């Protein structure tokens, strides 16, 4: 079995586009919250969200016409192109055997919203054909292969809702680990849509202004959008070509509550985290940081922190929520969370949980309120939980050239270039 | 994806069921396949006020009638198809549970986009209600693509990995490969694998506006896949999955990608082209004609003619390649000649995937 490392990151988010801006945003505790503009919010008493602003798809698309793609696909393709360039692999994947998999909650529901609006106003005969052709969910992944002209990949979309990003990363990890593929391009993407906003609003779980996970006064989620894509490859491959290594993927866990469509289940979440720890070969006390699912709803935050205390004991690792900054980016959420973990390891800091005033006594964790802190992180875990009880936890480890893996796996021979944390020149060929 | 991976697990199909235009359950499916009876029929335009005159529907399918009233108040059609297909698979004809589930049971369910009808109905209320948030909260989960897989888990206590794989027409074969990977890495002891697609007015309109001309069908097929070395008590392999390969195809031309995938599965399994007994395509309409022409060129007319055509059930979208596996298993069940034979299954999806699987039918 190969050791698997993360060598390329692509990010489209409300707090920054690209790995560098995203890392700076996480470190600064930037907030993506603003009034929603992507759909008409007339009639909603409050309508803040974490939109991606200043995103110009034509900067990232060379082959494909953006008008033939839904917004989620535009995000996924842009993030994929960034990730491949960041890995120093631009133009080098055409014939390489690979897996492309993008997690999503809503696919191209933004387009579906508009098709329904047309139907309501002018009848179903008037629906836009281009819009109809954009909506099949497989396109979130296939568009990446099309734009990057990847001629030897399997490409599909994992639609496991709000843990789908971690599902996709886990799938990529397994495919690289067993040597089935030379690389995996995996992550998650979603575009904000009226459907999901209206649904959460109706459930009373949309916060009026901002998202404040673990706070005693938290009022719910903000919907968000974006994409996070990762390049995974074997450690041997990365070392051989002198790639910068952000982190090693140590393992992951998946399970299903089989309990309730919407409500979380504490014991099942515990089991998911234990599966991930076992798979990664690490003990609970070795985990330095948990990036929680941390939506900012009453139910999630209490259930999740209780599950964490069951698994990690009375002094659990620091447990943060990047959703405080990014909102809930749905299918992108756990991919962006895992990327945040990798950047935290690489740059030596813990991203904060912003908008925090008083920790809920029922959420007995240190959420690193408001200000990031410097830290040497060796093992970091990212949680994703979804409607339908789909849980997925991913565990990353710090990679130190020449040393055994943090879970004790043997080291490999090291090319000194791999130790250079600075991007190589050829990694910044994408226009910014 | 490659032979070492398959050799490591030796995944075998040990049970299956289908809910299809042939009827609810495996027996109806086998009978329908063997009879070769087309299923397209005029639509009741009151129930289905869309653009279609005809479709291939599961006859008289009603979630409440098939599954009962308890827990089905808000259940949509595609969820009902999947929950009932798995229910059929897990129980014998007398309703006795014959397959255990729980933490070791994965579900990998293929789709195109979940229920387009549920998703569009949900947001429609936001446009037509008195207030934009006047949507039906009980139906919100239906508007998310993993609804069917999650409900299957709740109904049948599937606590392992629970994956909804959006792969269009290739979803059945992609799900099989994905499930093999789960088993290989020890993430489940057994996997229920398949795909579901519902007929709906919303899907019909999207299909029409996308330029689709095929007669739409619906259905769900689910396979129980286990490692050959760990087949549950009372079951025996019906077929071994020797290899699955899939490729994105460039420039809207699936032929090279399909040829490469066929070549790869044969090479991976160490099988010569002339050893393949049957070759089975999944697409219908014009893409299906191209797919079948390519299979004829590769494997000869006799191999392609051994299975009834894919168009009996209409364009079943994501469910198509899973239903084709069920077709192969149906023929195998009633044909002494099929024992031990090699079968190639292909799928060509309009969105960009060509996929291929190689099965060896049980002796």
Automatic annotation (TrEMBL), chain A:
Domain of life: Bacteria
Keyword rRNA processing attributed: no
GO BP terms in the entry: fatty acid biosynthetic process
Family membership noted in the UniProt record: Belongs to the thiolase-like superfamily. Beta-ketoacyl-ACP synthases family.
Keyword flag Transferase: yes
GO molecular function, one term: 3-oxoacyl-[acyl-carrier-protein] synthase activity
Coiled coil: none
Protein name per Swiss-Prot or TrEMBL: 3-oxoacyl-[acyl-carrier-protein] synthase II
Pfam families with a match to the protein in the record: ketoacyl-synt (PF00109), Ketoacyl-synt_C (PF02801)
Residue ranges annotated for the Ketosynthase family 3 (KS3) domain, each copy included: 1-398
SUPFAM superfamilies: Thiolase-like
Gene3D superfamilies membership: 3.40.47.10
InterPro entries, per database record: Beta-ketoacyl_synthase (IPR000794), Ketoacyl_synth_C (IPR014031), Ketoacyl_synth_N (IPR014030), PKS_Beta-ketoAc_synthase_dom (IPR020841), Thiolase-like (IPR016039)
Keywords carried by this UniProt record: Transferase
UniProtKB/TrEMBL annotation, chain B:
Keywords noted in UniProt: Transferase
Domain Beta-ketoacyl synthase-like N-terminal span(s) in chain numbering: 12-209
Identification of the protein by name: 3-oxoacyl-[acyl-carrier-protein] synthase II
Gene Ontology BP terms: fatty acid biosynthetic process
GO molecular function: 3-oxoacyl-[acyl-carrier-protein] synthase activity
InterPro entries in UniProt: Beta-ketoacyl_synthase, Ketoacyl_synth_N, Thiolase-like
Top-rank taxon, per record: Bacteria
Transmembrane segments: none
């Amino acid at each position: 079995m190969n050791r698997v490392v993360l060598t390329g990151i692509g990010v489209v988010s409300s707090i920054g586009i690209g790995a560098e801006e995203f890392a700076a945003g996480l470190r600064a505790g930037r907030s993506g919250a603003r009034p929603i503009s992507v759909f008409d919010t007339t009639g909603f008493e409050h309508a803040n969200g974490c939109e991606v602003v200043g995103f110009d798809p034509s900067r990232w698309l060379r082959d494909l016409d953006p008008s033939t793609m839904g917004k989620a696909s535009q995000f996924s393709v842009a993030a994929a192109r960034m990730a491949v360039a960041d890995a120093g692999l631009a133009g080098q994947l055409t014939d390489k055997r690979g897996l492309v998999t993008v997690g999503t909650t809503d696919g191209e529901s933004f387009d579906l919203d508009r098709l329904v609006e047309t139907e309501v106003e002018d009848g179903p005969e008037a629906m836009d054909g281009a819009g109809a052709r954009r909506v099949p969910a497989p396109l979130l992944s296939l568009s990446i292969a099309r734009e990057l002209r990847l001629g030897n990949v399997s490409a599909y979309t994992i639609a496991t809702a709000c843990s789908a990003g971690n599902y996709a990363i886990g799938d990529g990890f397994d495919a690289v680990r067993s040597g089935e593929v030379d690389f995996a391009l995996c992550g998650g993407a979603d575009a904000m849509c009226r459907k999901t906003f209206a649904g959460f609003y109706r459930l009373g779980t949309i916060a009026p202004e901002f998202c404040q996970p673990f706070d005693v006064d938290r009022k719910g989620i903000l919907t968000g959008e974006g994409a996070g894509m990762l390049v995974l490859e074997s450690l041997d491959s990365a070392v051989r070509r002198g790639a910068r290594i952000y982190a090693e993927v140590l393992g992951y866990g998946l399970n299903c509550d089989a309990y309730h469509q919407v409500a979380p289940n504490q014991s099942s979440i515990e089991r998911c985290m234990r599966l991930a720890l076992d798979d990664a070969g690490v003990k609970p006390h070795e985990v330095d940081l948990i990036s929680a699912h941390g939506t900012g709803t009453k139910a999630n935050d209490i259930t999740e922190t209780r599950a964490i205390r069951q698994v990690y004991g009375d002094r659990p690792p620091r447990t943060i929520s990047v959703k405080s900054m990014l909102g809930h980016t749905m299918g992108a959420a756990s991919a962006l969370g895992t990327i945040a973990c990798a950047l935290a390891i690489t740059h030596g800091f813990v991203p904060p949980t912003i908008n925090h005033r008083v920790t809920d006594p029922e959420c007995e964790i240190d959420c690193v309120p408001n200000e990031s802190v410097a830290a040497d992180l060796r093992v970091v875990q990212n949680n994703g939980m979804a409607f339908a009880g789909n849980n997925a936890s991913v565990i990353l480890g710090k990679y130190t050239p020449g040393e055994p893996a943090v879970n004790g796996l043997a080291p490999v021979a090291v090319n000194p270039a791999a130790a250079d944390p600075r991007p190589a020149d050829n990694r910044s060929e994408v226009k910014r | 994806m490659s032979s070492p991976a398959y050799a490591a697990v030796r995944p075998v199909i040990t049970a299956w069921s289908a809910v299809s235009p042939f009827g609810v359950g495996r027996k109806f499916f086998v009978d329908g396949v063997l009879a070769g009876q087309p299923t397209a029929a005029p639509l009741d335009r009151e129930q289905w006020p869309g653009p279609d005159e005809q479709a291939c529907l599961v006859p008289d399918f009603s979630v409440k009638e098939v599954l009962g009233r308890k827990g089905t108040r808000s259940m949509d059609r595609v969820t009902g198809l999947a929950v009932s297909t798995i229910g059929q698979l897990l129980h014998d004809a007398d309703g006795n549970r014959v397959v255990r589930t729980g933490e070791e049971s994965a579900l990998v369910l293929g789709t195109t986009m979940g229920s387009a009808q549920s998703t569009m109905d949900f947001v429609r209320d936001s446009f037509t209600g008195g207030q934009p948030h006047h949507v039906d909260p009980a139906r919100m989960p239906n508007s998310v693509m993993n609804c069917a897989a999650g409900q299957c888990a709740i109904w049948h206590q599937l606590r392992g990995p629970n994956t909804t794989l959006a792969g269009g027409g290739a979803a059945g074969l992609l799900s099989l490969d994905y499930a093999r990977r789960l088993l290989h890495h020890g993430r489940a002891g057994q996997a229920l694998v398949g795909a579901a697609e519902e007929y709906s007015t919303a899907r019909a309109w999207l299909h029409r506006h996308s330029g689709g001309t095929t007669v739409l069908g619906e259905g769900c097929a689910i396979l129980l896949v286990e490692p050959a070395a760990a087949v549950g008590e009372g079951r025996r392999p019906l077929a071994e999955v020797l290899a699955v390969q899939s490729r994105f195809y460039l420039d809207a031309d699936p032929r090279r990608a399909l040829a490469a995938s066929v070549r790869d599965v044969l090479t991976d399994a160490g099988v010569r082209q002339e050893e393949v007994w049957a070759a089975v395509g999944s697409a219908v309409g014009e893409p299906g004609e191209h797919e079948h022409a390519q299979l004829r060129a590769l494997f000869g007319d006799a191999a392609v003619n051994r299975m009834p055509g894919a168009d009996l059930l209409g364009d079943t979208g994501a469910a198509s390649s899973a239903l084709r596996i069920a077709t192969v298993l149906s023929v195998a069940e009633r044909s002494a000649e099929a024992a031990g034979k090699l079968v190639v299954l292909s799928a060509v999806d309009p969105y960009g995937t060509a996929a291929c699987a190689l099965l060896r039918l049980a002796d």
